[in-house]
Specification:
Elements lengths: L1 E4 L2 E7 L4 E5 L5 H20 L1 H16 L6 E3 L2 E3 L3 H25 L3 H44 L2 H26 L9 H10 L7 H12 L10 H43 L6 H61 L1
Antiparallel strand pairs: 1-2, 2-3, 4-5
Helix pairs in contact: 5-8, 6-7, 7-8, 8-9
């Protein structure tokens, strides 16, 4: 008889007027039934000394099976080839026949045995649901709590969606207006030469620098020949033209750099509209790089402005020096004329 105590199966039966009650240490009823049957067989063998008799029979059969090795003759000469391999090949059909017989017996097993197998699966599923299932449930609850923490505290989804909506609204509201402001035409020239020069100035392309020099000379004139003006005047003209062209060329470079910065800013703004929390450091780093580039362009423009101002001061100082020289010459002429009379 089988009975359960604290989810463990026990068997209880009588053998030769002696009560046998022992634990199977198993939660499966099928395993407990097999343990009970095995215990009965062990008791029977102990009474009738079956184990010793079987061992004696096994030894006798082993001694009878020891036969002298067969000698194979090949053309009248003893052949010591691989006899075991040939015997193994002959025994292959018997192995297949044995396997087929085992399968046939398994198919003819009564329904009660199948029920025992299903009991084993039921016990396994019960163990999974009771023991492992509770652990899996705890893990699932912990995972949900961590996910909720990320969504509500670290990376709140509502705040992220609100920020993305603000960025998208800013793009749709201000980007087109800013582009229109930057593209407002400011040309004012009327004649052909100045119009060409002005179009080059507003091209925002550094590739137009050679054309700018040619157009500058065509509109502002070339430096007089060596004997057509005083040497000091020619030097001042050359320096003023050089400073003027340098600043104009710098404006082309700065305009092209500004367009590049604006394109980068638009790309970063588009990326911000669809960004995820993990990508924020990369966007911040890219923004810092773009800021450094913008500052570099500003420094370049400031340097050009300082050069222009320095050239203007030097030009005014050169005029003052020349006027002083001319004044000194006139004074000498006046003094000489008065002394002569």
């Amino acid at each position: 008889m089988l009975f359960r105590r604290s989810n463990i199966w026990w068997y209880d039966f009588s053998f030769r007027n002696q009560r046998i009650r022992e634990s199977t240490h198993s939660r499966s009823k099928t395993v407990a039934r097999e343990a009970e049957q095995q215990r009965r067989r062990d008791l029977e063998r102990g009474i009738h000394n079956i184990t010793e008799v079987q061992q004696n029979r096994t030894r006798a059969m082993t001694q009878d099976d020891r036969k002298p090795e067969e000698t194979v003759l090949l053309n009248g000469i003893p052949y010591a080839g691989d006899i075991a391999a040939s015997r193994k090949q002959k025994s292959q059909p018997w192995k297949w026949l044995t396997a087929v017989s085992v399968l046939t017996i398994a198919m003819l097993v009564p329904a009660s045995a199948h029920a025992g197998i299903f009991d084993v699966f039921s016990e396994l599923f019960g163990t999974i649901q009771s023991d492992i299932g509770s652990s899996l449930k705890s893990i699932n609850q912990l995972t949900q709590q961590v996910q909720q923490l990320y969504q509500t505290t670290m990376w709140p989804l509502a705040a992220l969606n609100q920020a993305r909506g603000f960025v998208a609204n800013s793009i749709s509201s201000f980007r087109n207006q800013m582009n229109q402001i930057f593209s407002i035409p400011t040309t004012s020239a009327v004649t052909a030469g100045p119009q060409q020069f002005e179009s080059i100035l507003h091209s925002r392309l550094s590739a137009q620098i050679p054309a700018l020099g040619t157009s500058f000379t065509a509109n502002y004139g070339a430096i007089p020949q060596q004997n057509s003006a005083a040497p000091q005047d020619r030097l001042m003209m050359d320096m003023d033209d050089a400073l003027g062209q340098e600043n104009l060329k710098t404006t082309l470079i700065a305009d092209q750099g500004a367009d590049t910065i604006l394109q980068t800013a638009n790309q970063m703004e588009n990326q911000v509209a669809t960004t995820t929390p993990g990508s924020n450091p990369y966007l911040t780093a890219q923004a810092q790089v773009s800021n450094l580039r913008c500052q570099a362009y500003l420094q370049k423009m400031l340097a050009a402005q300082l050069r222009q101002e320095a050239g203007r001061i030097a030009h005014d100082n050169a005029l003052l020096k020349r006027r002083t020289t001319i004044t000194g010459g006139i004074n000498s002429l006046i003094t000489g004329a008065l002394t002569a009379h």
